[in-house]
């Protein structure tokens, strides 16, 4: 920042979030919350209404169903009771087989099954036996009475705590109100007709049944009771129940089904009803029953799911509690209002003739015709009215008792669940942390959802802090090499954004703290005339950017005429690996730049990652606990602390050009916080840049994330978490066979391909093998520069292709072990990966077949001739690639890509023309185009912020041969080239190009040679004196780069005596990187500091064990080159032979298409059968089947993933600001 008052114009980069469409997201959030609230309310209303209609149809006096058909309604009630148990049984059985499950103790099984027996029996007695004999108001509200035992257990649980509880009085009041409601109910029904013994039995069974059902949620309070009392038996019992939940759910589900079936099977004959009517019910009544039970079952399951969504969205009050409270009231209104309207209409039609409700019941309701000649709705209203005829609605006392019991039950439920208004819900909280039981009760859906929500003790002075609220430590670890100015600016601004978003030592934000570390590869270079090595231009640019961004972020909130504050002093440190710059950002967080000297420590990205893994996780995390152990602290306690810190320490891997927002980091942190077995999570990577190559990559990245990564996330695990923006758990990285194996030096040819060409994929392979889950979060956006040059793109994919193949083969070969060790990966998922892998291998042959199809249509060639013509160009390119240089290969590929692009345009038009000519869409190519278009368009619509990428899809289609044919050939043939391929010769922005050295005379050459020699000797001597173990920390290059010479050219020889006494000349303005950096950094003063001895020793030991620079062993390099070439030849032989076999098989089938073909009916564009058959070879049919299955799986999983992404993002917006 300039200090001159007249120089006020600034060049300030964008530091605000201009990429996220916040207006669209807020509108989407508003709509989502309203939709969820309405669905919860509406589905609860449908579930309860349909269930009560079944109860009403079971009543003896109702006429919608004849008396002989009552078993049908009772059977449907039984189905409503057991359906949740069936679903729970299937889910628990799947988890028990898919994941590890331990058998419970006999005492645990006995206790759980005892309660389940009572609850199942009570539910069956209440709904099947008792409720059909009660009025509609009691039937609606008595279900609220199932909160009686929960209210009692709340009182007991709160009394066991030693602190004063906020909700003790509401729980006591709820218990009293529910008991009062039962008393009013008993008084109303028993005193109405004391001689009616049957009614007394029904009423008694209703009370007993509802009391038994109220035992259903005892587990919510048993957890807290066992924690607050000193009973070891109860603690062990609860622990056993938690560990063996799957098997207990299987047993309890089977018991519930058996008990419900027994009660239903016994009650029908006891009540003198016949089961034979089930097979002879008329069609009209069948439709009525089927609609009602269908609505009940579907709405109950969906209401449970939407309630779960509401809780995960952090909208507990407005979208969960309030809609469920109002559902019970709405059901009463829905049933009573039509009764009143029909009654008033009848009275109005009598022209003043007096009639009371009792007369209306006997004359109209009970005297109507049994046949369903009128509206079904009218008959249902009369049936509901019939249930109220037992109560004299014209009697004020009866109305008062009925209303009092209904209101008391409802208020009792509200007070028993009032603690939910203060229930602390975390973002995307796990279902098991929201609800105690997996089972919902379909017959009283709103009561079961409210009472099943986890109960916690809430006091005035404290709130329990769950494990998920522990403060986590996040290390941002970026690797740099040859990034330009704009790329460095992106990541530095992103880090400073995070510093502003989460200031250090701010009590308002205790969820996480962070440090940023940048590891700069090959940062040093030799400078003639200097005693030490200097930082190169790229490294210097980073320091300038740090000072610039610091000034920008400190002047954001200052007044116009306020003088800018000076940037505080920062630290520079000489380290055994090179140097370090430590910058304290404006809000207290630290960013550390580690400058690596490749002559001191091993360079390249994987070794930079190993460097920060051992420094942050080995030295920073573990070393302090070993020191405390040596001081005599308890080992068990220290071990628990270590495990906790490992679990709550995360590493955010970044590239040197990654641009991200703080929200993206928070969304990744949520995944690791909530799910302890998640070892890594990645976000949505957006390539940036301009030009056709970038446009192609934008769409390619889009479909990769939209479809492939979501499918992997939902049905298994993400196989690759990209190193440009991924969050890793320290506990996972420090697990056996992960970090240690990742530090392995490549010794074989296959190692160079799998380990070094795609290090992020190999790290994920190690995590998956060790049982950790890798996830994808589509709401976490990050932006990184993509190759804009055709050559750079091909070289990048030349690295990625073989590495991906090697890691997938590694995983497929370990399918049995991984499926047992990793609970998220099944053999079925690995089979899906096998199909995808086979498809990628056969991609070149598939492209050739597609091109051959276009030749057949355009040139009217036979299929076999067209196939031969389509194979010739790629075959020639394949042969040439083995003999010409890689740059020439890319040039040829570029020319062929343009030709193929025009051909693809013709192919697309050809497919459309073929559909019009043949008047059918049932061909492999036609189905391919139509399916791709529909899937991509619908998927893009479901990603509204990225819908513009569909236009890049047109270019993507034209580039399919280049991407899947030519690029595949290039990457396979050049597999033995293990160089990085990108950024290797790209100059830094603003860097001056070195001038060519002036031509030297013999005298000048001799003089420079002696100067280099003496300079090298003196530096070695100084290093040996200052380094205790003889390690040369800052060695000079034996052959430093010559600088331009400006001396006069003279043909003069230097005498030998004078040569012997020549001293090295140190005429550089700066003699080390420290003074160099201090002179470059004018706006930010740098003070020299030093490492602690212990840390310095750590770096020296780490270098010796893992990071020593690799020796320049010519023989070994020659052997590796030969091994790589041999490995390339073997893999290429298998790869291209597979494609050749695929093509030969197709060629053969086309020669004999009359006998070896599948006949399919020909369908025209109106989807009508034309009377002709279409011949398709078996391979084409397999392609249709395989491709269709894959696309359907990916699309369905994408839709599922979008829903949960929306849930997560809405929850984030509810709890975080958009700073």
From TrEMBL:
Its EC number is 2.4.1.16. The keyword Transmembrane helix applies. Keywords: Cell membrane, Coiled coil, Glycoprotein, Glycosyltransferase, Membrane, Transferase, Transmembrane, Transmembrane helix. It comes from the Eukaryota. It catalyses: [(1->4)-N-acetyl-beta-D-glucosaminyl](n) + UDP-N-acetyl-alpha-D-glucosamine = [(1->4)-N-acetyl-beta-D-glucosaminyl](n+1) + UDP + H(+). The chain crosses the membrane at residues 33-57, 72-94, 106-130, 136-155, 167-187, 199-218, 247-268, 288-308, 320-343, 399-422, 830-859, 866-885, 891-914, 921-942, 954-973, 1133-1152, 1179-1200. One of its GO terms (biological process) is chitin biosynthetic process. SUPFAM superfamilies: Nucleotide-diphospho-sugar transferases. It is an enzyme of class 2 (transferase). Belongs to the chitin synthase family. Class IV subfamily. PANTHER family: CHITIN SYNTHASE. This is chitin synthase. It comes from Dissostichus eleginoides.
